[in-house]
Amino acid sequence: MFFGGQPNKSDNTKFYTLLGVQQDADPATIKKAYRKLAMKWHPDKNPDNKEDAEKKFKEISDAYSILSDPEKRKVYDQYGEDAAKEGGGGGGMPNPNDIFENIFGMNFGGGEGGPRHNIRPLVEVVELTLEEFYTGKTVEVEVKKEKVFNKRGRVDPKGMTVCPDCGGKGKRQVLRQLGPGMVQQMQIACEKCQGSGHSLKPGFRLGTETQKLEVEVPPGSKHEHQIIMEGQGNYDSKSDSYGDLVIILQEKPHDVFKRRGHDLIVHQKVDIMEALTGFETVIKHLDGRELYLKVDEIIKPEMVRQIRYEGMPIPDNNIIKGHLFIAFELEFPTSLKTSQKTKIRELFGLADSKHDDLTPCILVDPEEDNQDSDPDPRMGGIPGGFPGGFPGGFPGGFPGGMPRGMPGGMPGEGPEGVQCAQQ
Ligand SMILES: [Zn+2]
Fold it and tell me: 4-43 as b/e, with b when 16 or more CB fall inside 10 Å?
């Protein structure tokens, strides 16, 4: 029904209009237009008008799947949408999500994260701050690519042809006369194409072109996340096609926040007096918001508190974020004045010493004690040497090991050999 009469001219502009590109747009422009619109209309990004978004997303994907395929595009230009869709060898239109994932490389981590084919990909590393990972960003990447240029300096892959001498094999069979009636068949690299299998047509040359590409970094992307951009890599003469460009995202270390999965961790230093009497601070979040933190409970060493859903965004999930953990680090004064001590003791109703008649033991820091004749008390050398032992970090593997500067004078802490009065 579509091939009968005149080409239906009214039906072959819709896809271009949908993507907002000219009818003579090159593949890169079409891809870029699709990427922008797909990010905008992805159903996950439009939870409030999912139905409209799904419809629009499907339309964009259909348009892209036709216009990105040179054969289908030709059919579409001549005969319109229905002919182009039918010309795809049955099977109907591809799943919009498949197209999206292919372009954005979202389905990484499942073992299929690598580039699709054998052409060595062009790899670019992009460094981003944690703020940029949090909010998401469009990054402009400059890539140097190998390309075929024509006489006028324009890029034209058609300037590369299969080598006429070797037919694309890159090598030739030659016969060598060894003696009377004796020949040997040998394989040599093709001189014309130097083994590449392709040669440049007259007037064409191989060169590099710097291209600026826009890369969409979705909010919550991970450190080392790879964005694969199909066909944006170097020209490969063997397969006469373009390889992929792989953008690897690198996270710069942040002064305040650390990332663990989708969660964020802040190590918050707290003065011991504030830990006892009340602590407050304002933490500037990665998107600039200020989080007011007020703690009334007594902050204990290694204490962790969680602010729900203030962690990193989760890609493909608009609703839930990770959590924010506040890991408190108590700071003790190195010394107190006698007057301060007296006041504190008074405030807390602590009695004066009842043992003025005895000589106190000398307490040695075991880590600074060189005459270690005994095994480490923590290994069980002294029974009950450290009451309760050291807290072993945070549950679930928080950073932070042995706390330094524990309050002095723990009962029974003194290693053996200490000279002191016995009762
Ligand atoms: Zn050749």
Answer: eeeeeeebbeebbebbebeeebeeeebbbbbbbbbbebbb
